[in-house]
Amino acid sequence: MTLRALLAASLALAACATPRARDAAPPPASGPAIASAPASGSGSASGPSPAHRDAHPAGAVAYALPAWIAEVATGPLGRAHWGVAIWDLDAGRWVARHAADRYFVPASNLKLVVAATALERLGPAYVWRTSVYGTAPVGPGGVLDGDLVLYGRGDPNLSGRFAPSITAIFEALADSLAARGLSRVTGSLLADESLWDADYVRGDWAAYDLLWWYAAPVGALGFNDNSIDVHIRPGGRVGDAPVVSGEPPSAFYSIENRARTGPAGSRSTFDLTREPGTNRVIAYGSFPIDAEPAIEYFAVVDPAGWAATAFREALARRGIVVNGPVRTVSRSTESPVAAGDTVALAAHVGPPLARVIDAVLGRSQNWHAEQLLKTIGREVEGEGSWRAGLAVERRTLAELGVDTTAFLLKDASGLSSANLVTPEAMVALLAAMRGRPGWSAFRDALPVAAESGSLRRRFAGTPAASRVRAKTGFIENVYSLSGYLTTVSGREYAFSVLVNQTAGESAMAAIDSLVVGIVAESAP
What we know:
By secondary structure, this protein is α/β, with parallel strands linked by helices. It has 13 helices and 24 strands. It has helices at 3-17, 19-22, 67-74, 111-121, 168-179, 303-317, 336-339, 353-362, 366-381, 386-399, 423-433, 439-445, 506-520; strands at residues 34-36, 81-88, 93-98, 129-134, 143-144, 148-151, 184-185, 189-192, 227-233, 243-247, 254-257, 260-262, 271-274, 280-284, 286-288, 294-299, 321-322, 326-329, 343-349, 407-408, 420-421, 468-475, 478-486, 492-500.
């Protein structure tokens, strides 16, 4: 029996064993939830289309259910909603599908959409520019008689990710200003984020998530992923306060340490919160005395103010004094840059888009994905907003020949549980990206099984090691994996496995088992 027939029969029987899984999502517009691969190629060489749905053959032989599928159906995925789509990129045909035209919450697999859209619309060489302006030129004695403006255009890497230190970019800008003779600013330091809207977070992101780096505020001017690096290590004795510090140190925030050092072997209950609407951080709970030092990344309030305060402190270290306060400018009507009433003094050019795509796909950086979406909206639609960015995503999917009705898009990162996509539509996007100008950057950014990114600890010692390039995904009760694989005989497949309503990491093991079986061309 061929792998194709085995998979089709196994998936069909698994679906019969788990009727609840088929009822967990909205019904498809047309076509079956389960399909076998046709005996000969269907679809097109350019990629799968929703029109190419082949009904499960009437009277098909009911093959015995392989043990590994039985374990999945009654174990990790027994009560889950799960879908699989596998497309042969060489032959242009489906290998196997299960619930492939049903809606699923994709988690971080959704980042494939923003990455593809950015490469299509902006190109891999696109760069961000952050500028420093004065509302007056540098005058006699190095005095700028006016305001200094730090103007953001959405660069997600004003940080130490591609620089020697967290504040190195601001230090370099301060050096440039010092080289121009600037010594004092009589006015304020304006944190100008007016190029985009100031809608920092999505309304459907969970409240607790908003405390952390993965749901940090999204704006045209940000710094260090709009987060504070909070370092924690145990105190000297049980009952002492643990040592808690923030990096980079700054007057922008404070940390009140209410936590205690717990006994050896105890469970850590250490956590962080804030006084609402402020950057007054509160540490609480217990941190075991034998625990290894840890780092948490805590999101800030007022991201432009965070960037400008860190910049002001870098200026001070170079001996440049700003007399007035930091003021955030969120409206273009209040921006001296938008009005054209400024003098350019210094600028920083960030890394190219291809490297940012690596952060989005390889390391699954949520904030980078959202910054990228608003960048797309601004550059293509003239509006730095989620609304504009999502509109460009939908238009790009359509131009790539992907069924846009198979996507319900709410954000770029996949953090929202209101996002929906079908496995076959995800595969259609993956197939469409082959041969596009941004294909190399897209493919190379994907994690490699057992080697890099979020797959570096998965698939080790299996046939899938180094043969799978795919985007991982996880939010509560959701696991996903979508990308490309090469079978042991050299066949190239695009695939998507989406699992919803699951209660543990055993779903990830089930996904891995399925992928290993496809790569090995036999049931694992």
